[in-house]
Amino acid sequence: MAFPKICGIETEYGISVRDTSEFNPILTSSLLINAYAKPAFKRVKWDYEEENPLRDARGFERPGAEAPPDDETGLVNVILPNGARYYVDHAHPEYSSPECSNPRDLVIWDKAGERILEDSIRSAKEIVPDGQPVLIYKHNSDGKGNSYGCHENYLVDRGTPFPRLVKHLIPFFVTRQVFTGAGKVGVENGAEACDFQISQRADFFEVEVGLETTFKRPIINTRDEPHADPEVYRRLHVIVGDANMSEIATYLKVGTTSIMLKMIEDDYIADDFTLSEPVAAMKAVSHDPTCKQTVKMADGRSLTAIELQWEYLRLAKKYAQENLSEDVMTTDVLDRWESVLERLEVDPMSLHRELDWVAKLSVLQGYRERDGLAWDHPKLRLIDLQYHDVRVDNGLYYKLQRTGRFETIVTEDEIRYAVDHPPEDTRAYFRGECLRRFSEKIVAASWDALIFDLGDEPLRKIPTLEPTRGTKERVQALLDKSPDPATLIANLSS
Questions:
Q1: Out of 47, 56, 89, 384, which one is annotated catalytic?
Q2: Which of 63-77, 97-111, 206-220, 249-263 has the lowest mean pLDDT?
Q3: Structural domain of residue 294, as residue ranges?
Q4: CATH at 308
C-alpha cells in the first residue's frame, strides 16, 4: 500500500530594489531575511551533516555537480517557528515550507511564505541602503535568461523502482502544466518565438532525467536526499513546476501529483503513455494557450495535453474508488481536476478566476485591446511581472482576488496562523514547537534532526527521521511536561 504523501514546496523568490539597477542580490536577500528573523532563531544554524546533493537516485554519487554550501559562506539560514526554512539560495531569498500531510495544508503554509516575504520587506525598510524599497516576486524568470525554481517534494517508498517513477511521471509533468502554469509573455533560453505561453519554466528544461537543478535542467530530478530514514523513504524532488499565486493551481499541482505517486507505488498504471520527445513536447504544450497542440507518443499516437490528462484522471478515479474511497480531500482533488479539464477542453479562458496563466492572459488581452498594444510592448512585460508581486496591497494577483475576480480555497486567518505555527500532523510540529520553546538551547537543526547544547555535556542530537511522527497528537503532552531541553531529552529517552 502506498505511503502517505507528506509534501512540501521550496520557492526561490525574485528580488530587486526599485530605481537601483546595480544592487547585490545576495546582500539584499541577506538583509531581508535578517530584518525579519528574530535573534533567538538567527542563532540556530542549519545542520548540513546529512545533506548530499551529489547522491543520485540512479544508484551512484556524481562528482562535479552542485555541492552543499559551506558554513564559511556566511549566508543567512533561518529555521522559523512554523517549521519552515528561510534562507539565501543562489542569490534569492528562499522559503521552504514545513512538511504538510495534504495539499490544502500545503497551500496554507506556502501562502504563509508570501506573507513572511511581505513582512520581511516592511522589516527591511530601515536597513536597505539608500532606503529604496525591496521588491519581491513569486515567479520563475527574470526575463534576461535566468530561471529560478519552485520545487515540490514528496515522500516516496524507496522500494518503488526509480525507472517506474520516471516512466509515468515524465508524460504527467509535461502535460499537467495546462493547469499548473503561471503564464509568461514571450520566450527565453533560445526557444521558438511565441507571444504568450502557459509555463514560466518550460523553456528551461533540456534533458529528460538528471541531477542538476540550475543547468541542463531535467524533467525528472534524480537528487537522492530523503531527509528521512534512507532505508525506507525517498524524497522525490520535483523541479519542473511553476511558482503559483493561485491557491487552486497549487492545490491541484500537489494533489494530482500525490495521487499519481500513490498509483505508481502500488504499480497500478498498466498503460504506457511514454512520449516520443518529452523535452520538445514540454515546450510545445507551453507555447499553445489554446491547449489544442498535440504531442507525439512513443506508440505513434498523437494526443493533446488535455487528452493525456484525461487518461490519468480516468485511472486516478478508478484507483481512488478501490483504495481511497473514504478520503474526502482526494475526492475533492479529483472533482476539481475533472472540472478544470472539462473547461480547458471547451474554453480555457473560462478558468480566468482559477488558474494563473489564464488570469494573466485575460488581463493582458484586456490591456492589448484597450491600448492597442503589440505583444512586444514593454508595458505587457511589466504587467506580467506585477502579477507576481507578493505585497497584498500592490500585487496584480491580489488586486484580482480583492475585487472578487479570483477564487481562493483557504482563509487569511489560516494563512496568518501558519506564519508562526507549524502543521500539527507531521514532524514539523515537533521542530517548530522546540524552536519556539527552547531556541536558546538549540545550536543547529535540519529537516530530520535537532541538536541541543545543554551546557555541561556533549551536544545532544535528536533525530526526526520519520516525517509522520512528531505530531501534536504524539508529542504535545511530552513537550508540556518538559520545562527545559534536558527534561525533554530525558523524557524522550525514558
A1: 89
A2: 63-77
A3: 7-416
A4: 3.30.590
